[in-house]
Amino acid sequence: MYPNEVFSNTELTEDEFAIALTSNKLPLNSALAKAGKCIICYCLNGEAEIEVNLTKHRFVKSEIMVIFPSQIVEQKKISPDFLIMYFTLAPHILQEVTFRFPPSFLNFLHYHFYYRVGDETVKEEAVRFKEIEEKYLDTENFCRREILMNLLRIFFLELFDKIRRDELTQSGSKHNRKAEIYEKFCNLVMRTYKRNRDVKFYADALSISSKYLSIITMEHSSFGAKQWIDDYAILELKVRLKSTSDSFQKIADEFNFSDLAFMSKYFKSRVGISPSEFRKG
Q1: Residue 148 in contact with residue 17, Cβ under 8 Å?
Q2: Which CATH architecture has domain 17-169?
Q3: Which of 33, 91, 131, 146 has the most CB atoms in a 10 Å sphere around its CB?
Q4: Are 78 and 46 in contact (CB under 8 A)?
């Protein structure tokens, strides 16, 4: 070993990084799941109905989809010819790759999980993916991890450049106050939905009226603020019920319900079945 060696052929597990040049399904554990990783995915053919944090989208050919850890993803209908290429990053790898990236860029991707890139870009990215895969498989390379991290960082930098250029050239790229409020509302709900599920709390936090907040959410999601809050809480409850064997009482306490009966009533009124029936599947 060389003295003061800087580089090391550090092993990357599949939980930290995985790549597929072709696949007919998204790298999720189930049809409804909280993404534990960052998923970068290009649609090569066909289409799929995807819902990310209550936003529905028809994922089609020549689009990129970026899903971040903790986002709730529901994979619905998939066409028989659906084909994608993707790579996944564990949260700590994503943090390392995007270190010192502008917060506005990562925030943009959080709320705009799909992006149209075009056929030529997909062909170019297929070459880049192949290069990343080859480097990932080159386990004899002493600088494998460092090279791979740099390739991934370049990928995100190129993506940032494409999106930033489009923002500057689009006529509708002016600052949109309503969109900003909607994004702040969504972010606030995702952070505090376990403690607060009342529209007035969020309206007060955003210094606007409850009525105006509902108008904004209707414009951006087609339903009011209360339904957005409840739907997000229900999504989180569904994931919690399916992903653990914790008692209903523990989950009720975690979600700050006054008692188990109230949680069951809240869940059944919005889903149509009780939490126990949902867990049984």
Answers
A1: yes
A2: Sandwich (2.60)
A3: 33
A4: yes
Domain 177-280 - what CATH class? Answer: mainly alpha
Interatomic CA distance for residues 136 and 144, integer angstroms = 7
N-to-C CA span, the chain = 56
* Domain edges within the chain: 17-169, 177-280
157 alpha-carbon distance from chain centroid: 19
Query: Strands across the sheet with 38-45, in order?
Result: 17-23, 83-89, 38-45, 63-67, 114-116
- Which residues make beta-bridge pairs with 19? 87
Q: Which two tokens stand for residue 65?
A: 């989809």
Alpha helices for the chain (secondary structure H)? 91-97, 103-111, 119-137, 144-169, 177-192, 199-205, 210-221, 225-243, 248-254, 260-271, 275-280
- Rg, Å, the chain Cα set: 21
DSSP 3-state of 73: strand
The pLDDT tens digits for 48-103 are: 999 998 888 999 999 999 998 878 898 888 999 999 999 999 988 888 888 777 76
Residue 4 corresponds to which tokens in the numbers above? Answer: 């003061």
